[in-house]
Amino acid sequence: LYYLQGFSGHGVALTGLAGQLVAEAVAGQAGRFDVFARLKHRRFPGGPMLRTPSLALGMLWHRVRDVL
Questions:
Q1: Segment 13-30, tens digit of pLDDT
Q2: For 35-62, what is each residue's pLDDT tens digit?
Q3: What pLDDT is stored for residue 62 in this prediction?
Q4: How many CB atoms neighbour CB 19 within 10 A?
Q5: Helix %, strand %, coil % for the chain, to 5?
Q6: In 10 A of CB 63, how many CB atoms?
Q7: Per the confidence metrics, is the pTM higher than 0.70?
Q8: Which of 13, 24, 49, 60 could tie 29 with a disulfide, CB 3.0–4.6 Å?
Q9: What does the DSSP 8-state code read for residue 43?
Q10: How far is it, in rounded angstroms, from Cα 48 to Cα 67?
Q11: CA distances from 36 to 30, 39, 45 (A)
């Protein structure tokens, strides 16, 4: 099962590449896909306790910037 998600605002730049890599993997040519599959995922700094407050603070910051 192959799926793509979480482009974090970089969808235009990376969606085409990701789609091509998955298509190659489905066709049995998974060499380039395997390189990306081995990338380590970073944990959110501060862990789960700071995730929601940090998100709220970030959204507030951008809202204030939009108003100013």
A1: 778 888 888 889 889 988
A2: 877 888 788 778 888 888 988 999 999 9
A3: 94
A4: 11
A5: 65, 0, 35
A6: 10
A7: no
A8: 24
A9: P
A10: 30
A11: 10, 5, 22
Report which of 34, 59, 55, 37 is spatially closest to residue 46, judged by C-alpha positions.
55
Distances (CA, A) of 10 to 6, 13, 17, 21: 9, 6, 11, 16
**Distances from the Cα of 31 to the Cα of 15, 21, 27, 55, 60, angstroms:** 18, 9, 11, 36, 42
DSSP state letter for 42: P
CA 14, CA 65: separation in Å to the nearest integer?
27
Phi, psi of 4 (to 5 degrees): -125, 140
